[in-house]
């Protein structure tokens, strides 16, 4: 369960900004909007949050920051080499931030403990890294599990590792951790049992989709075949009045010698070395024609909205089943507003979202700001001032009684977060 994510000096972000999923007093009393965690430090968390903002306001930078954070945690110990550059992207427009490290921190609850993990990096090294935890037990206190910080004076790291709670070959883990890699990643690679829980949450339960437009049919189709999700996906499509009677999925194994010419050679070689079997899917939708007969259409012949909903269905159902946190950029792309609401409702419905999955998304679609559909605690604004960088502003900062009043005021520009449209005269 995500409690908060903080980013500093990454792309459009300059000063530290935090997106919080902690429920306010209003939302915590409605189980559609929030759920109880049983953790005293964050007793109620939101089921969803939406970030509104103009183009270039920093919404995508937030998603990319989370994506960078996750990928660096997973891959820094095993995919980078000594001296290899870190793909950090500092803010280039505000003050001297381009010469400073980028910083990321996540607070989350996993296996009944609350964790606070973060690091600061530039293109050359990890400057600082820290991990704290607090078990959900009476009289428990916050524990510093480890902290490393680079000292420029002696060109070495200063280390603090909690010997009480971290057992194992700590000196070996420290020596194996390169300057351009994370200690959490390296220690887990070397079987640090006491650090596996926070690493596991970041790796398996914290996900991003940078653009629904880039999703393929593959994951949803595979889940329909292997997990029997076909009726589940079909019901979702039909719930927004898509006139599909059924889905047909044909599978066949592709011979490695028949791989398409356009497939990159290195991928072909990797598949041949592993001798993996490749399964191809052919998806068709069945519709009734005017005479009542069933007609089969290739899924590609369906509308963009139907295709977008089908592609999203698999990842969303997977998050719901596992109780994961998912961040999606521009979730509304190609979707009718009613289809967008249907997806959000999957997370808002406690009967469906039994494992307290969370959905965070960016959007321009203000129609979701409807009474009893979304709470003001769930709404954030992204505002980009080139002198300060992107700022994340919760709607709860404003004196707004309900989201219905906010929708009109937002579109009128009262709260910022919308494009400043200027006249376009004579092509100028």
Q: Care to give the gist of this entry?
A:
With 428 residues, the chain is α+β, with helices and mostly antiparallel strands. Helices cover 25% and strands 28% of the residues.
Helix content: 25-40%
- Count of domains: 2
The overall pLDDT, averaged over residues, is 89
Structural class, please? alpha+beta
Distance between the termini: 49 Å
Largest sheet: 7 strands, antiparallel
Uncertain residue ranges = 418-428
- Which strand order spans the largest sheet, edge to edge or round the barrel? 2-1-6-7-8-9-10
Per CATH, the architecture of the largest domain is 3-Layer(aba) Sandwich
How many helical stretches?
Answer: 10
Can you describe this structure?
The protein is an alpha+beta fold. The chain contains 10 helices and 18 strands. It has helices at 59-75, 170-176, 183-189, 196-204, 218-226, 230-239, 265-274, 304-322, 337-348, 403-411, and strands at 2-8, 17-20, 34-36, 44-46, 48-53, 102-110, 113-121, 126-135, 143-151, 156-161, 206-209, 246-254, 278-288, 294-298, 325-328, 358-363, 379-385, 389-394. A hairpin with a 7-residue loop joins strand 3 (34-36) and strand 4. The longest helix has 19 residues, at 304-322. Mean pLDDT is 89; it is low at 418-428.
Which short descriptors sum up this protein?
428 residues; Rossmann fold; 2 domains; 7-stranded antiparallel β-sheet; 6-stranded mixed β-sheet; 25% helix; disordered C terminus
């Amino acid at each position: 369960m995500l409690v908060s994510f903080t980013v500093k000096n990454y792309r459009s972000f300059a000063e530290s900004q935090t997106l919080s999923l902690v429920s306010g007093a209003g939302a915590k009393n409605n189980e559609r909007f929030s759920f109880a965690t049983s953790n005293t430090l964050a007793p109620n968390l939101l089921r969803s949050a939406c970030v509104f903002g103009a183009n270039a306001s920093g919404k995508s930078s937030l998603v990319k920051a989370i994506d960078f954070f996750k990928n660096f945690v997973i891959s820094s110990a095993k995919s980078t080499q000594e001296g290899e550059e870190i793909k950090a992207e500092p803010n280039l427009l505000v003050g001297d931030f381009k010469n400073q490290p980028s910083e990321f921190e996540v607070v989350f609850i996993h296996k009944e403990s609350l964790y606070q993990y973060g690091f600061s990096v530039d293109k050359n090294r990890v400057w600082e890294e820290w991990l704290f935890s607090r078990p959900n037990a009476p009289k428990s206190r916050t524990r510093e599990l480890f902290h490393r910080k680079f000292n420029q004076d002696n060109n070495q790291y200063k280390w603090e590792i909690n010997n009480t709670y971290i057992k194992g070959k700590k000196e070996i883990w420290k020596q194996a951790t390169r300057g351009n890699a994370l200690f959490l990643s390296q220690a887990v690679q070397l079987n640090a049992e006491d650090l596996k829980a926070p690493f596991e949450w970041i790796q398996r339960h914290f996900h991003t989709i940078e653009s629904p437009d880039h999703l393929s049919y593959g994951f949803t189709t595979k889940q329909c075949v292997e997990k029997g999700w076909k009726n589940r996906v079909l019901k979702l499509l039909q719930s927004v009045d898509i006139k599909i009677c059924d889905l047909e999925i044909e599978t066949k194994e592709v011979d490695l010698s028949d791989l398409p010419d356009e497939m990159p050679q290195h991928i072909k070689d990797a598949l041949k070395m592993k001798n993996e079997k490749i399964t191809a899917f052919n998806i068709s939708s069945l519709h009734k024609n005017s005479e009542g007969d069933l007609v089969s259409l290739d899924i590609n012949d369906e509308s963009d909205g139907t295709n977008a909903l089908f592609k999203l269905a698999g990842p969303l159902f997977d998050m719901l089943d596992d109780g994961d946190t998912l961040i999606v950029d521009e979730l509304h792309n190609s979707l009718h507003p009613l289809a967008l609401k249907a997806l959000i409702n999957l997370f808002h419905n406690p009967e469906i979202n039994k494992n307290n999955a969370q959905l965070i998304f960016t959007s321009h679609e203000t129609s979701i700001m409807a009474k009893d559909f979304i709470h003001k605690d769930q709404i954030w604004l992204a505002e980009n001032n080139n002198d300060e960088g992107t700022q994340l502003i919760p709607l709860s900062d404003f004196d707004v009684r309900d989201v219905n009043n906010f929708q009109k005021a937002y579109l009128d520009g009262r709260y910022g977060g919308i494009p400043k449209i200027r006249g376009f005269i004579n092509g100028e």
